[in-house]
Each structure stands twice: as structure tokens, then as C-alpha cells.
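Lecture notes, unit on protein representations.

Consider one protein chain, 272 amino acids long.
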Amino acid sequence: MPKVSDSPETTSGAMFEYLLRIMRTLRSPEGCAWDREQTPMSLRPFVLEEAYEVIDAIDRSDFDGLKSELGDLLLQVVFLSEVVKEIGLFEIQDVITSLCEKLVRRHPHVFATENSNRNSLNATEVKLQWERIKTKERAAAGKPQSLVGDTPRSMPSLLRAFRLGKQAATVGFDWDSADAVGDKINEELIELQSARATGEPTQIEEEIGDLLFTVTNLARHLKVDPEMALRSTNTKFENRFKNLEQQLKKKGIALGDASPETMNEAWERTKR
């Protein structure tokens, strides 16, 4: 049986080294068959899954759960780094070094020794500075110099729409006010009705997309995270629908047999 040395002293550095040894043991020929089979591609869904579970624990204020979920997310970072190390590309030390250098480089108002205005920037100015530095870094690396070029396409579409609008707004490409965005939503609704009249699925889909994109920008102007708002509404709908089901069950009515009127009455009682 593979040996992992005794649990180390409980400093952060020692525990992190212990975690790395466990991961290397699992990936070794004497380790776990499943762990040995994993690749960067196979681990992709787990990264997303664990990130969502972290968000869920935060939403529920479940801090005991959050501790566990953060550990699961950290596992994915360590796991991927170990797999890539075996390929010969980089290892976990490079990941940490890259992060540390980036944090220092993008916070010159904190770390630059020659900066006489240390910590003088407000949060909005810090964000603008971050974007300017990131743009220069992309140019130096020979990457496309688009303000919106680094928004991952794998990101959930609602969140990505919010991010695109937010990034464009940093250079003034934006509506003047929330009211102006509201007017645009009304315009998109009219265009959607016109598309529905044609019966053309592709056109209807495009107009639905335009409407959703504009709604995310209204949320941004109102300082609401649309992803969090929709998560909250999904939870509210789920809870109310479960209540509706319980009401019908108490009356001996199967959900599939309930009339629309009966379901609407139960729904309104749930809302009250």
C-alpha cells in the first residue's frame, strides 16, 4: 500500500505540502486507478461543478459547508496542476508564482515603492487601473488587444453578457441611464413580437437573445448581479412550486390531474 507520511504540523504551508503529497500518491502507479486516468479535459466539468457548489454554500450562508466546498475547489487546482506537471508544462509552484506576480503587478497603488499616492485610489479607479494594466499585458503577450477579448466563452451566457457590457462601459460605450436601458428593452420586445409574427425560429431566437442581453445591462445599471438575481428567483419558484404540490397532495389531487384554475389558486395562496 502506498505510504503518505504522517500528517504534518498544522501551518498553512505544511498542510499544503501534505496535500501535494497525497495528490502525487493518488496519481502514482500504486495509487488510485480513477485518479490516474484523469486529464485536463476530463476534469473540466468538475471545476465548474465545484465552483457552483461554492456559490451555493455562500448563498445559503452555510460556512461549514463552504469550508468543505472550498477544499473541493482547491483540489481541482492541485489535481490539474499535477496532471499538467506530468505532461511537462508547468507545476503548482508556477501557478502560485504567476498569481503572486499578477496581484503585485496589478496593484501598483499598494505595492509600488515609488508611488507617493499609495492607497489613494477608490474602488472604481482601482478597477479602471486593473483593466488598463491587463490590456497592456495582453498587448505585450501578443494577444488580441480587444477590451472584451478575454471574456471566456465557456462562462454561463447570462454572466458573460453582464461581463461584456461591464467591460464595454469602462470606456464609455454604454447607455446614459437605467431609463435608457428600459427604453431599449421596450424596443427589443417590439422586435420580438415582429419576429414572432414571421414564425421564423432563427429570428425569434436572435430577438430573445437581444432582449436577455439588454436585461443584463439594466441589471448592471441598477447595480444588481443578474446571475445572483436569477438564482434567487429560481429558488423562490422552486419553493413555491413545492408548496403548490403539497397543497394539491393534501386535497388528494394528482399534479397531472389538477386544472389550470386549481393550480393558479394554489399558486396564489403560496405567494400570499
